[in-house]
Amino acid sequence: MQEYKVRVDSLIVNQPKTYEEISSVLGAKKNDTLLLNYFIKGAQEKNYLIGLSFAYNQLGRKYRKLSKYNKSIALHKKALEIANEVNNIEFRVYSLNMLGVAYRRIDAVRTALNYNQQALELAESIVEPSAGLQRGMYVSLNSIGNLYHTLEQYNLAINRYEASLKLQQELGDTLGLAINNQNIGEALEAQGKLEEALEKYKISLAYNESINSDKGRVICTNSIAQIYLKQDKAEEAIVLLEPALKKSIELGDKFTTAFIEANVGWAYMQLNRLKEAEEHISRSLSIGKEQNISRIISLGERHMSDLELLKGNYKEALDYYKKAIDLEKKIASTRNLRYANDVILRYESEKINNEIESLRKDNEIVKLKLKKNRATLLIICISLVLLAVVLFVFYRQSQLTSDKKLLTLEQTMLRSQMNPHFLFNSLNSIKLYIINNEKKNAVHYLNKFSKLVRKILEASSLKEISLADELETVTLYMHIENIRFSNKIHFAVDIDRRVDVNHVKIPSLILQPFLENALWHGLSSKEGIKKINLYITKEDEEFIKISIKDNGIGRAASEKIKENKVLKRKSLGINITKERLKNFSKDYLNSYNVEFIDIKDDKDVALGTEVVLTIPII
After folding, report:
1. CATH assignment of 213-332, given 1.25.40.10, 1.10.3720.10, 3.80.30.20, 2.60.120.10?
2. What is the pLDDT of residue 424?
């Protein structure tokens, strides 16, 4: 105790500014509640605010591990308030991430995602982030991955986990590597890829063994046992679960303990030891209700339903099952919408197949009639040849007209991309850097501007380009436009792993008009955080979906502002883009689709706009 007080006193005197400097002095004692309170008292007396933010966060983590989430959240909010007061980016990021983790534990997904996304955006806003900020980034990515996992967006979750894993490998963070391999395993398990998941769990366990992490060992062991249960290997599972349960109780982590209790109960059910199964499942359910954690309650009620079924109590089994289903509907009501979309797609596919079959039968009837009358057949053949010639002439005429229209569209598109307002404002921004003697920024943005102009000119001569080239062009465009917004806009691109951006072809320069629309109509009049997110997903083998989502003022408010302007700017970019998409789709069996979606909250307040482009691919 005395030695620790000496360490704390030295910290308060020297007042280091980074997480790593404080953590290295405190060592393992940074998790001691009694001594942390001593640190808080001393930091308050000497007005050591960074130290105070650190201590509040550590106490918050401690209470979170004990499943005391309200206390944990209150402490992390205090830490964030102090970090904002002293404008310390590293501790702001750390506090935001800790709040995200705490809210995720109580299934407040939307709130958790908001905090973690804020942390990631803040860390990424620094051009040359410190090691502490890089750690903050991978914590954010990992947490966002967990939230996507909760929403059953498993591919998106794995994408975030792998991005986090890459940062951890660069920093040599063994604990982070253990956590992310565990998370990837959970996403794979949810997709039914049990062997791949088992391999990831074993890798995570090896990392936890290397750093002697009891909590990590408990979590990995429970996950491995869960795979065994899904493979009907109850005896192998119970050998792992019983010591893991004992250790989890010792650690005081009720969240993890609840899941292990549920799995122990499941294992005993498979072994037909129903009394013991009921004891463990009941304890899991009690913890879930005590901590108000919906996932644990739902899992417990499902297991209780299975247990009552084995005991022959069918009414009780049905009651538990209904409770579990009702709770799961509340947790993930959006899944119904996705299911409905799948049903619609299957229906449309079936309808098209029926129409093709009908056409095929009609064709067979025509053939039979032709065979009965050779003379008629000969006349028809001659008529068809003549018709083909006429159609070919009309087709060539139509093609020439279409080519002329396409050329006009391409020229209009180029003028739209290189409009004088954009050129003047971009060059004017670069000029301001030069006037302010910000040579590095001037050169940086002049290089980006020249590269953007070159790519626009190159792309304008092509009918289609790779999605990778298009993304590079719009990223450059957003960097240039962001100068005019004082670099306050966060632009992010999220690509589904199934999409090979180097092989997917789209019309050249197709995305910029929608981004420009989002910037000047959605975000230019908005106060506070401004975001544009571009999501690219592959719906099936025939279509790629590109979603451009902003958190602007919404279309209705934008129209009101536009009506009140004396000088109205006429924008043709979106209409030109639709015409170009129409011409592009002629070469494919499927058509394109452009959909504008107003994003609103439960009170019908505008939260932004989403544009969804569905483009056919080979």
Report:
1. 1.25.40.10
2. 63
Within 13 Å of residue 18, how many CA atoms lie on the same side as its CB?
A: 11
Instruction: Report the chain (618 residues): mean pLDDT per 10 consecutive residues.
Output: 75 85 79 82 89 91 86 94 93 93 84 89 88 87 85 86 87 88 91 93 93 92 93 92 92 88 92 92 90 84 88 87 82 45 39 58 70 70 79 69 54 50 67 78 81 78 83 88 82 91 85 86 85 89 89 86 61 69 69 87 89 84
CA 145 – CA 151 distance, rounded (Å) = 10
Query: CA-to-CA distance for 165 and 531, rounded, in angstroms?
Result: 25
Residue 600: φ, ψ to 5°: -135, 155
Cross-strand partners of 594: 613
DSSP label of 606: E
* 213-332 against 417-616: fold identical: no
For residues 603 and 555, the answer to whether their CB atoms sit within 8 Å is no
Q: Which residues, other chains included, contact 370 with Cβ-Cβ below 8 Å and sequence gap of 6+? A: 376, 377, 380
Beta strands 530-537 and 489-495: pairing type? parallel
Q: pTM of the full predicted structure?
A: 0.47
Is 238:268 a contact under the CB 8 Å cutoff? yes
Instruction: Indicate the pairing of strand 543-550 with strand 530-537.
Output: antiparallel
| 106-211 under CATH 1.25.40.10, yes or no | yes
* pLDDT value at residue 221: 94
- Rounded to 5 degrees, what angle do the CA atoms 146, 151, 156 make? 65
**6 Cβ neighbours under 8 A, 6+ residues apart:** none
Residue 281 CB neighbour total at 10 angstroms? 26
* Angle between helix 69-86 and helix 49-65 axes, rounded to 10 deg: 160
Residue 423, Cβ neighbours under 10 Å: how many? Answer: 12
Residue 181's pLDDT is what? 93
Residue 475, phi then psi, degrees to nearest 5? -65, -45
Name the nearest CA neighbour of 506 among 545, 562, 558, 563: 545
Which letter does DSSP use for residue 596 in this model? E
Domain ranges of the chain: 1-87, 106-211, 213-332, 336-397, 417-616
Domain 417-616 annotated CATH 3.30.565.10: yes
